[in-house]
Amino acid sequence: MTQAQEQRFEFGKNWHDFIQKNYGQDKVDISRRHMLAFMGRGSLDGLTFLDIGCGSGLHSIAALQAGARSVHGFDYDPNSVAATRYVQSQAGNPSNWRVEQGSVLDDAFMSRLPQFDLVYSWGVLHHTGDVWHAIGNAAGRVRPGGLFYIALYSADVQVDPTPEFWLDVKRRYVSAGWLTRRWMDLWYVWRFQMGRKMSALPAFLARMREYKKNRGMNIFTDIRDWLGGWPMEFVYDADAIKFCENLGFRLEKIATGEANTEFLFVRDRDA
Fold it and tell me: Cα–Cα distances in Å, from 123 out to 15, 153, 184?
């Protein structure tokens, strides 16, 4: 294994810091509304929910509050597990919410999990180091007739700069020290949020204030997650659709944001 492969961004520390400073019911409400709106549902009443790469824990508690019958979350990063358990404790440790450490690339671990009505993984599977293996293992936990909701970094929208540009940035970020990372955060804001124009600062500050309405997240938490997200693989939307169709899924809905494409698949009942 090369040094670049061994290096990983501290996703869990990033999300643990975020949740300790920012957790509140308003964040949960935003996450729940986004999830339900994309799925075109009023609730998740009665559904079993698997949260792969549970990260901050916000999406797990959002699913629970949306009516999920049970929630099972896991993450590769122990700090993400700690963040989710913190949120779990704030909710009174519901008996129908389980959290554990595990890897979607661990075939034995995944095979021990039951199948779920809804398998959810937002912005995670492309960070595993083997995106197709990860998608395959995640899809295998969807029961026949169940739902598969994933978000993947899209290669389609990365034209200028290219995916290769961003992969180089991520390698540099993950190997850099604290001061260089903060400079890169500001470089990103200056170049990609403000277009190298000081006149764009008021608009950026306004966007910062409004950003929490986007899935309940903090803009600088997401910037650090974007710049440092290594390992990383970009996926063409058509390739993701074809791969899942070959596994017995039908695409129900697709939406492309700034970088992630969200997919909602339904598994064939006879799959």
Answer: 13, 7, 21
How large is the greatest C-alpha to C-alpha distance in the chain, in angstroms? 57
Provide the pLDDT confidence category of residue 3 given band limits of 50, 70 and 90.
Answer: very low
Tell me, rounded to whole angstroms, the distance of Cα 237 from its chain centroid: 16
Model pLDDT, residue 20: 87
Q: Which two tokens stand for residue 246?
A: 């070959």
User: Distances from the Cα of 220 to the Cαs of 44, 110, 168, 196, 198, in angstroms?
Assistant: 30, 32, 20, 18, 19
Coil, strand or helix at 68: coil
This prediction's pTM: 0.91
How far, in Å, CA of 96 to CA of 150, rounded? 23
Residue 155 token pair: 């290669």
- Reported as a single tens digit per residue, the pLDDT across 53-78 is 999 999 999 999 999 999 999 999 99
For the chain, count helices (H), then strands (E).
Answer: 12, 7
Determine contact, residues 188/178, Cβ cutoff 8 Å.
Answer: no
Backbone Cα Rg of the chain: 18
Return the pLDDT at 214: 60
